[in-house]
């Protein structure tokens, strides 16, 4: 039962969200019915049951009000209402105690004809509770409720049930399973207990009374619990709602799909009848289907047992918990009773034989399981066991084993899924049907609308797309990250895709399956991202698994109050005493409500156990090239100006230190010791053996010596104006910098403008300009010397990072120089042909980058560890860092713009688990001298069928991982090898997919919807500077693009690979969004093809680090006047990097759109206006990757080539 | 004369066996996280050339003393050693590079290689021992 335990933590989070979802759902279901209008079914099968559930809905509002005093906790309250449903359901059969119920029932029955009405009623109830957020929970819940209710009616249980209505069977259960009676009193325990109970209770008739009793007790606890919920709701509300909806819709859709499958399977007999039923299931939600099952009879006892489970959900906190719990349970149960699953199915079969109508039911169940309605799954499994095994034994099992048992459950789920696969088409049609029905719902609230979309999503991802015929595959809005197919509560708790993404959101069960899918498995991380909301936890003990050191996270399971089971290694750990107290709610005994267990991204303030030495001050050292080249380029002016402006904003505390070193053929140090009247320059000309002239006064306290620093910065740009020194002794300067930094660690920022030509680490030009556009291999992508690598490793060992700013107009061998940053966890900036006046765009870019660079957050002495569930292992790392041991990344500095990627393999089969988790823990010293740990945890489902693997593919993550792999490949092997590998990646995965879909003509190129952009993105990669051949590309440009691919987070990398193109001369407010009182128009995305460009239009291309605005020749003069501020096209200058602030509507729209794009990323992109005939237009046109160039295929040609290869 | 050749080969082979064992121990230390990649690689890189020389000398000796079978047995391994040394990219710090040893399963392949070499050297050891005894008897 580890599962149930795990549930509790999540539930708290979900509840706030859940409520709205519930509302939406309730509304939705009737509606579904409405369109289909299978009233007949209702009457025929289960009028009673059906009405009952509805009653429960109706009740919710009414009941809730009285019971709950606090509006705030509406959500929680709501949940109670929900639980009520269980009762209400019972009522009909029993003779109902609740007046409300009846009314509600009525309304419900009406619902089918009048969907709207029902929706309203629900809505009201929800409103009263305040929390609209609940959505997810309600859905699942309701399903359960109905399910139970049905069972009740049929079974003896009815009597007992009313008692159960307290739902608090759980306490009972717990007691049964567990000798210790402590449970009933403990609110926390209840969720778990409940789950279990469900199984055990039904079986044991005697318990009923007990249950009732316990139920009461639990109720009390419930009210208490609500408080935490309230807290939750505040923080989470908005985002959660969405996710909740998603999950709902998903579940829905899945069930649909399954239903359709069922239909197909059922075949003959009452085909029409069956179909209608299925449909109905879908619409009405699981609950109704369940009820039908109940009618079928035999099952009832089983269901009965299951019922208790839902009942417990009555508590609000528990609701969410329940869901999770249920889910888990599902797994758990499955595990516990591997047999049960088969059993249940067999029983189902029996029932079907007895009653024709019944047959759909079993199918339904299966379908549900497969669909990722974990909850349902659990239910099914539980019933089966009940009959076969004595209840007690069962309950005990789940408790003790939790995971091992999981396997069977898993297997159960598996068959349905696999079933889905072959039936794809049918399933698809089912979906369509569904969507057709949907339109009727439009009247519903916007939230429902959201649901509608979501519904279609799941089947969508597998919808076959004919790439050759379907020309407009690019969506009009930016591609969202796929949502893992988890149950709603888990999904809500899951880590944001911005920080943590997996290439496959459905993890294949075995390496064999992964190999079949031909897609890379890996993670893309952006762990130190700037977050607007981050729970920070100060606690003397940080709870971690004792064997694998995993931090406690939302996906662990609580076995009981005192123990939790690690979700990565499955070890059972003790909950420390301190963890029992929840500082947020100031309550005791609710470990699952602690913020660590409620958030998948948290930050701990670490104790001294996590320090090797006391936190060091922030130390910044600038190493500046002042040779002739550098002075000529004039970067010093920009740098010193930026530094002066941002000196006070440098992250750090009162101990912050700063220092400067300049170098040409000698190395110059600056003594800035407090008390000096002016900065003192110390020149060391012995570059073969550099030493520090005055080791103590070169790095000075920023605040104490501020005046001297300012003096120096003001003087620096002019100090070397007359230099004739052309040599650059970068190596010695770096060695000196390393010596200076090694006692404390910190950040070295190196500004270099040419090839180092003196002392250690000197380099020679390796580029042959004639080979720039060669289609043969590109040489010299790797470093020429190991000097910079060794230096980087030395620096990394002393916790020093080296950031490189390369501002050269000539070849400077970035491939070698970059090593100093790559292995010391630094970052690399490259400004080709930088000149402060001649190339103002670059100067502006440097200025903006510096502003961000100097003021952004920074973490020192960092290490990052990535852990994953047993069975998975990480075999390759990408990014800027040094891999110190098998899974420990040493990051001397960590910055918010750094992204990482890892490749994984499946070493052991994952058949015994249904979820896998990944956790990254980043331990760092903040600039304020605090030791902190930022922990992200991602949870993903495991699947066993190839179709599911494809359905969960995250095409953007796949592309970014492939880009990283291709960079490695081109350095270690050759560029043409890596290009071939990229093309083969597409060919292999598409042909693997096509071979799984049997009924396709071989002559076409089909991709699953989830991968439809895959070929396009790979083509974009092939045309990227890093990998293109045939087009003249400077070696440094190429290497820089490769460095970026390795170190950029996914969002930035995707913009770089596939820029976004918008038409901006006709911006309207249609579909606009409001941000901070500003209206931001949302023009649709355009294909990256010249066919979309028109001479009358103006287009904006967002390449991540640069915006191009292309103005067509016969562009509307009004636009030029209103937005650009020039009278006509001819008057627009060639180099324009800013839009004037004009007081016109179109100017305002354009500017608000551009600034909105800018605000969404940390780097300030430079704007470049390009006229149609300007020479700079090649920069713009090279990004139109769907077009043909002299050296590369167009998208269509490329598709044909791929098709040819797949047919082989 | 022949016995001298084999006595030398035997000693050389012993050294190579010890070296292989040392490689295996160091690599497994790295695997278990007892030492860090940097020190592991610098330790191992130091011994790559001695190993290469030691093995090449035996191979050449066998060629000179016209023991064709043993020469042919040793030749592929000696070639592999030289090839591996020559093919190290210019930016790497040696055959064992601390920045790459944890990537792409390099650690495992190094380990496998060391194991195979150990087996090979053991085989050679007994062959040399046999040949030496035979040579001594003949003398």
TrEMBL record, chain A:
CDD domains: Sec24-like. Residues 954-1054 form the Sec23/Sec24 helical domain. Residues 19-31, 336-359 have a biased composition (Low complexity). Residues 97-109, 409-430 have a biased composition (Polar residues). Residues 542-578 form the Zinc finger Sec23/Sec24-type domain. It is found in: Cytoplasm, Cytosol; Cytoplasmic vesicle, COPII-coated vesicle membrane; Endoplasmic reticulum membrane. It holds the Pfam family zf-Sec23_Sec24. Its main location: cytoplasm. GO terms for molecular function: SNARE binding; zinc ion binding. This is Protein transport protein Sec24B. The lineage of its organism: Eukaryota, Metazoa, Chordata, Craniata, Vertebrata.
From TrEMBL, chain B:
The chain crosses the membrane at residues 5-25, 52-75, 118-137. The keyword Kinase does not apply. It comes from the Eukaryota. It is found in: Membrane. The keyword Calcium does not apply. InterPro entries: Cornichon. It is a multi-pass membrane protein. Keywords: Membrane, Transmembrane, Transmembrane helix. One of its GO terms (biological process) is vesicle-mediated transport. GO terms for cellular component: membrane. Belongs to the cornichon family. This is Cornichon-like protein 4. It comes from Alligator mississippiensis.
């Amino acid at each position: 039962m580890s599962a149930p335990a795990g549930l509790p933590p999540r539930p708290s989070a979900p509840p706030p969200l859940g409520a709205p979802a519930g509302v939406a759902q309730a509304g939705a279901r009737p509606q579904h019915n409405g369109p289909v209008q299978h009233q007949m079914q209702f009457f025929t099968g289960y009028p009673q049951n059906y009405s009952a559930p509805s009653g429960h809905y109706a009740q919710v509002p009414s009941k809730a009000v009285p019971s709950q005093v606090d509006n705030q906790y509406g959500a929680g309250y709501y949940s109670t209402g929900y639980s009520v449903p269980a009762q209400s359901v019972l009522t009909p059969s029993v003779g109902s105690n609740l007046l409300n119920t009846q009314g509600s029932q009525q309304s419900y029955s009406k619902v089918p004809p009048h969907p709207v009405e029902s929706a309203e009623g629900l809505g009201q109830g929800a409103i009263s509770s305040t929390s609209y957020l609940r959505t997810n929970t309600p859905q699942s819940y309701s399903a359960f409720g109905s399910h139970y209710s049905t069972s009740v009616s049929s079974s003896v249980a009815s009597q007992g049930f009313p008692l159960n209505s307290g739902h608090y069977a759980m306490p009972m259960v717990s007691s049964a399973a567990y000798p210790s009676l402590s449970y009933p009193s403990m609110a926390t325990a209840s969720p778990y207990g409940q789950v279990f109970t469900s199984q055990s209770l039904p079986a044991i008739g005697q318990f009923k009374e007990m249950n009732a009793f316990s139920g009461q007790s639990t109720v009390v606890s419930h009210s208490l619990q609500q408080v935490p919920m309230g807290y939750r709701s505040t923080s989470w509300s908005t985002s959660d709602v969405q996710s909740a909806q998603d999950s709902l819709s998903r579940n829905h859709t899945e069930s649909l799909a399954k239903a359709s499958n069922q239909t197909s399977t059922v075949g003959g007999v009452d085909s029409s009848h069956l179909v209608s039923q299925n449909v109905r299931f879908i619409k009405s939600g699981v609950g109704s289907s369940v009820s039908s099952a109940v009618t079928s009879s035999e099952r009832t006892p089983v269901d009965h047992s299951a019922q208790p489970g839902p009942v417990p959900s009555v508590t609000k906190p528990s609701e969410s918990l329940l869901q999770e719990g249920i889910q888990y349970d599902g797994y758990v149960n499955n595990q516990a009773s591997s047999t049960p699953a088969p059993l249940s199915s067999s029983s189902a079969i029996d029932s079907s034989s007895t009653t024709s109508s019944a047959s759909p039911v079993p199918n339904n169940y299966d379908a549900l399981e497969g669909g990722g309605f974990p909850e349902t799954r659990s239910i099914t499994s539980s019933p089966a066991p009940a009959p076969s095994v004595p209840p007690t034994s069962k309950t005990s099992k789940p408790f003790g084993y939790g995971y091992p048992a999981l396997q069977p459950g898993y297997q159960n789920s598996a068959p349905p899924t696999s079933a889905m696969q072959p039936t794809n088409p049918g399933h698809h049609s089912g979906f369509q049907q569904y969507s057709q029905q949907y339109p009727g719902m439009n009247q519903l609230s916007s939230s429902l609308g959201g649901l509608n979309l979501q519904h279609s999503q799941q089947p969508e991802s597998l919808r076959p797309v004919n790439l050759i015929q379907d020309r407009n595959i690019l969506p009009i809005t930016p591609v969202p990250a796929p949502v893992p197919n988890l149950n709603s509560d888990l999904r809500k708790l899951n880590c944001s895709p911005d920080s943590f993404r997996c290439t496959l959101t459905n993890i294949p069960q075995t390496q064999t399956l992964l190999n079949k899918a031909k897609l890379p498995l890996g993670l893309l991380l952006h762990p130190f991202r700037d977050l607007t909301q981050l729970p920070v936890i100060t606690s003397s003990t940080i709870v971690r698994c004792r064997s694998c050191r995993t931090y406690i996270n939302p996906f662990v399971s609580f076995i009981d109050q005192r123990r939790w089971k690690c979700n990565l290694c499955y070890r059972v750990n003790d909950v420390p005493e301190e963890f029992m107290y929840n500082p947020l709610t100031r309550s005791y005994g609710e470990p699952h409500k602690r913020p660590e267990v409620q958030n998948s991204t948290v930050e701990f303030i670490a104790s001294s156990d996590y320090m090797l030495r006391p936190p060091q001050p922030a130390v910044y050292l600038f190493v500046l090239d002042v040779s002739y080249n550098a002075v000529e380029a004039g970067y010093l002016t920009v740098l010193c100006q930026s530094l002066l402006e941002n000196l006070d904003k440098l992250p750090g505390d009162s101990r912050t230190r700063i220092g400067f070193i300049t170098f040409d053929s000698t190395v110059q140090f600056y003594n800035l010791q407090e008390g000096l009247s002016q900065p003192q320059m110390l020149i060391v000309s012995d570059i073969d053996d550099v030493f520090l002239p005055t080791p103590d006064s070169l790095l000075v306290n920023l605040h104490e010596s501020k005046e001297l620093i300012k003096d120096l910065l003001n003087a620096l740009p002019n100090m070397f104006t007359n230099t004739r020194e052309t040599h650059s002794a970068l190596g010695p300067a770096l060695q000196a910098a390393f010596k200076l930094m090694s006692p404390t660690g910190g950040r070295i920022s190196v500004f270099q403008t040419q090839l180092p030509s003196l002392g250690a680490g000197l380099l020679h030009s390796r580029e042959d300009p004639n080979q720039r556009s060669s289609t043969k291999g590109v040489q010299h992508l790797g470093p020429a010397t190991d000097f910079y690598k060794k230096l980087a490793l030395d620096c990394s060992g002393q916790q020093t990072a080296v950031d490189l700013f390369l501002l050269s107009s000539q070849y400077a061998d970035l491939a070698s120089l970059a090593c100093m940053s790559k292995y010391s966890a630094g970052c690399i900036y490259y400004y080709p042909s930088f000149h402060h006046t001649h190339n103002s765009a670059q100067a502006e870019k440097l200025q903006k980058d510096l502003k961000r660079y100097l003021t952004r957050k920074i973490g020192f002495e960092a290490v990052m560890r990535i852990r994953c569930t047993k069975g998975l292992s990480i075999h390759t790392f990408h990014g800027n860092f040094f891999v110190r041991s098998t899974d420990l990344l040493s990051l001397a500095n960590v910055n918010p713009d750094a992204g990482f990627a890892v490749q994984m393999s499946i070493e052991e089969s994952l058949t015994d688990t249904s979820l896998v988790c990944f956790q990254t823990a980043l331990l760092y010293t903040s600039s304020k001298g605090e030791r902190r740990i930022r922990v992200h945890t991602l949870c993903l489902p495991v699947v066993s069928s190839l179709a599911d693997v494809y359905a969960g593919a995250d095409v953007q993550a796949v592309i970014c991982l492939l880009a990283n792999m291709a960079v490695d490949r081109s350095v270690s092997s050759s560029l043409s090898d890596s290009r071939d590998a990229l093309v083969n990646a597409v060919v292999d995965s598409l042909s693997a997919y096509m071979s799984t879909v049997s009924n396709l003509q071989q002559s076409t190129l089909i991709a699953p919807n989830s991968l439809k952009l895959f070929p396009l993105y790979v083509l974009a990669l092939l045309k990227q500077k890093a990998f293109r051949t045939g087009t003249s590309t400077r070696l440094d440009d190429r290497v820089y693009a490769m460095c970026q691919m390795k170190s950029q987070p996914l969002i930035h990398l995707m913009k770089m690979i596939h820029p976004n193109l918008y038409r901006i001369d006709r911006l309207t407010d249609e579909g606009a969004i409001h941000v901070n009182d500003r209206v931001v128009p949302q023009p649709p995305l355009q294909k990256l093809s010249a066919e979309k460009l028109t001479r009358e239009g103006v287009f904006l291309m967002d390449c991540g680090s640069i915006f191009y605005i292309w103005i067509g020749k016969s562009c509307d003069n009004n636009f030029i006047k209103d937005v650009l501020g020039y009278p006509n096209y001819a008057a627009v200058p060639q180099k324009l990097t800013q839009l004037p602030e004009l007081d016109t509507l179109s100017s305002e729209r354009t500017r608000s759109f551009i600034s909105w794009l800018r605000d969404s990323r940390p780097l300030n992109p430079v704007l470049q206006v390009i006229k149609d005939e300007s020479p700079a237009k090649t920069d713009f046109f090279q990004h139109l990757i769907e077009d043909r160039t002299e050296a590369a295929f167009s998208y269509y040609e490329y598709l044909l080539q791929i098709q040819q290869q797949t047919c082989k | 004369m022949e016995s001298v050749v084999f006595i030398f080969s035997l000693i050389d082979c012993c050294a190579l066996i010890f070296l292989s064992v040392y490689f295996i121990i160091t690599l497994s230390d790295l695997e278990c996280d007892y030492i860090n990649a940097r020190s592991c690689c610098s330790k191992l890189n130091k011994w790559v050339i001695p190993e290469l020389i030691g093995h090449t000398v035996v191979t050449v000796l066998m060629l000179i003393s016209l023991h064709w079978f043993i020469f042919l047995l040793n030749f592929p391994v000696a070639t592999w050693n030289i090839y591996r040394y020559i093919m190290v990219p210019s930016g790497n710090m040696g055959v064992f590079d601390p920045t790459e040893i944890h990537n792409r399963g390099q650690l495992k392949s190094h380990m496998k290689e060391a194991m195979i070499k150990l087996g090979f050297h053991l085989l050679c050891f007994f062959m040399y021992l046999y040949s030496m005894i035979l040579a001594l008897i003949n003398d």
